[in-house]
């Protein structure tokens, strides 16, 4: 009786433990599979989104480059002013035809009123779908059996709009994005959509739906589909129903600066098919284990031995499963484009991915086991080591989990900017730091270029008026603190420059202005500032001068230097310059007053006979000198 009771009780315990173990194993398998595959979806979507943005920006930039071609602008201006328009049309047509050998399928030149002047290639006018892309100029993505990009760029001459250029480009590489998703199974699908008024959207064809959606709701049966999150500016991975009312696992993100959204998804049923397939074997194995356990309890000796063997086999299977999962995780780690470095508490590099070599130039064998500070400039290495020591003592840091821009050092000793995010992981009572980094050199160069263009004159590359005002303010603040120095503003105007433009053309006039700018800079000190205000007017700022005589000497040198002959395009040119001088604090204590008074003094120099300089004095009046000169 006791034996029967023990057998029943033991059997019940064995059944309960086995069922719990089976359910737990399946739950872990499903959770891990979902995490790995979701990460794979998100990484793949990011890669495709980066490719789409890069191609769109690159093609749009090509159109901007064409729109700035001097010969094209010159021909359009001639078309507006000459009577021989047919010959110019033919020349423009030949110019446009030369671009058809690239990816452009059609180009057209329009005048300022939108009337077509010349065309090359054939524009698609009956596209199945047209989606606007948010840019400075009119940009459209079109679908007609493939993806096309339509761009309209304004043609400008010295800031004046003189016409437009329209282009269409076949985006063959991007077309593949919509259908090349075989790695995500039969239901894998990538979608690119744009919002419409209300809660609707329009979408390009997909693998499962080869026709465009022209008016598709973003919310179906009261629930947002994944694309609604992307078009709302959100990024992530979720499980939800799509436009087919099927449950999918989808990665979503907005395409910044375009107004578009992008989703990569696959049916949840297919995504977890392999896990469910394994579930049958888990159930069979669990049932067999239960029966075997009951027999083991019934026949004491033999069942005990079989239990040991079964447990060993189960452990081996679990180990193989974990090894497989680790292999998958390692494969994802190795194929991420960003650099990933694992650093221990002592700052020693324990592992890297291939992205580190593409960023820093080091093989894994060259950095593993060495201090991570080797990837930083020498002046940053000590502070990095001090940071690790402080963090190991206090556990407090402003770097963990926060993206930062730092300067890194390449293997060839060159310095460059990287975007770094550090996360912490606890493993076997040891703190590890996971450093994910991305080379942002191109982005920094683009930012520097934009800043330079915003603060410098495009013709002479001198500081523009905005930059000049900042320099004048700084010079005045310094002189106000010092109280022993002055600031001089020299307003320079070229005499009879209009005659150069009228007699020799604007190209020669522009070349002359560039030469003048170089001559002015050659006379000045490194701390002085020269700015072109527009036309033939320049302003020179002389900070930290002791006496008015210093400004007078500079003015004399400038008049002498600028009056020397110029040889441009075989033409011998002679001009002079009139210079007006205003001093801080003698003539004013703020930038605006000094600018006005130096301008007044310049007109006085012109009235005095040109090719001269004049200091401002209170008897001068701006209006009287301007009237006399005009």
Key phrases:
single chain; 630 residues; alpha+beta; Beta-Lactamase; Alpha-Beta Plaits; 3 domains; six-stranded antiparallel beta sheet; 18 helices; 47% helix; flat; disordered C terminus
Task: Summarize the structure in words.
- With 630 residues, the protein is α+β, with helices and mostly antiparallel strands.
- The protein has three domains: 1-335, Beta-Lactamase, CATH 3.30.450; 339-441, PAS domain (Beta-Lactamase, 2-Layer Sandwich); 456-629, 2-Layer Sandwich (Alpha-Beta Plaits).
- The protein is 47% helix and 27% strand.
- It is built from 18 helices and 26 strands.
- The protein has a six-stranded antiparallel β-sheet with strand order 2-1-6-5-4-3.
- A hairpin with a 4-residue loop joins strand 3 (129-133) and strand 4.
- The N and C termini lie far apart (127 Å).
- The relative contact order is 0.06.
- Residues 622-630 have low confidence and may be disordered.
Fold topology:
Layout: H1 2-67, H2 70-81, H3 85-97, E1 104-111, E2 116-121, E3 129-133, E4 138-143, E5 147-157, E6 160-170, H4 172-177, E7 189-195, E8 200-203, E9 213-217, E10 219-220, E11 223-224, H5 226-231, E12 236-241, E13 247-255, E14 260-267, H6 268-271, H7 273-298, H8 301-335, E15 339-344, E16 349-352, H9 354-360, H10 364-367, H11 378-394, E17 404-409, E18 415-427, E19 430-439, H12 441-455, H13 465-482, E20 486-495, H14 497-504, H15 506-523, E21 529-534, E22 537-545, H16 548-563, E23 566-568, E24 571-573, E25 576-584, H17 591-607, E26 613-615, H18 622-629
Parallel strand pairs: 25-26
Antiparallel strand pairs: 1-2, 1-6, 3-4, 4-5, 5-6, 7-8, 7-14, 8-9, 10-11, 12-13, 13-14, 15-16, 15-19, 17-18, 18-19, 20-22, 20-25, 21-22, 23-24
Helix pairs in contact: 1-7, 1-8, 2-3, 7-8, 14-15, 15-16, 17-18
